[in-house]
Amino acid sequence: MLKIWGRDTSSNVQKPLWAAEELGLSYERVDVGGPFAGLDKPEFVALNPNRKIPVIDHDGFILWESNAVTRYLAGLDSTGKLWPKAAHERALADQWMDWCNSHLWPVFPIVVVGLLRTPPEKRDNTAIEKANEILESEWAVLDKHLAKTPYVAGESFSAGDIPAGVFAWRRYELPVKRTALPNLDAWYARLKERPAYQKTVMTPLS
């Protein structure tokens, strides 16, 4: 049995949720974090001493860190549906998953927290705008890559698309200034056609 700890509105939790839905895996999700709190409870700290979500328990195997969890779930499927069989495609999937952590995640919370969880009168609009400018320059890097291929690792959707796809939902839904990135737009439109994406990612932002 697969158990996933974490609130379903968390971007990091949505990664393994999306992967599980793509693969048709049965799972139980437990609300923790954000308004549900619980990250400091001894039973949760025993699962993840970092006090972060998501965490999974798969038949007694405990794993945390959202990209690692997503890769693990993708690897459970032997057909290569989410984890490509070709080494170079797996490497590209890995590359773009790590890119999200290195280039998007460091500044994304400034925009998300600033616009979603901070009262208008207390927002640092200058910091939000600066962070969004950085994000747009990063999205342009992915846009250039997607001019050559429909998905990040090649012709087919893979786990490599999941982290960026989760962040993309926020890019397009938040009231931010967006530059013209046609290849990113087309990729995002393809993601929105996926039932698993609709179910796990295209939810009200919080």
Describe this structure in words.
This protein is of the alpha+beta class and 206 residues long. 52% of the residues lie in helices and 8% in strands. The chain is built from nine helices and four strands; from the N terminus they run βαβαββααααααα. It has a four-stranded mixed β-sheet, covered by helices on one side. A hairpin with a 2-residue loop joins strand 3 and strand 4. Helix 5 packs across helix 6 and helix 6 packs across helix 8. It is globular and about 45 Å long.
Radius of gyration: 17 Å
Structural class: alpha+beta
Task: Quote the beta fraction.
Answer: 5-15%
Q: Would you count the extended β strands for me? A: 4
Biggest sheet, spatial arrangement of strands: 2-1-3-4
Distinct helical segment count? 9
Order of helices and strands: EHEHEEHHHHHHH
List segments where confidence is low: pLDDT < 50 over at least 5 consecutive residues.
none
Helix content: 40-55%
Element layout with pairings:
Layout: E1 2-5, H1 11-23, E2 27-30, H2 42-47, E3 55-58, E4 61-64, H3 66-75, H4 87-104, H5 108-116, H6 125-146, H7 162-173, H8 182-192, H9 195-200
Helix pairs in contact: 1-3, 1-7, 4-7, 5-6, 6-8
Keywords summarizing the entry:
alpha+beta; 9 helices; 206 residues
Q: TL;DR of this structure?
A:
With about 210 residues, the protein is α+β, with helices and mostly antiparallel strands. Helices cover about 50% and strands about 10% of the residues.
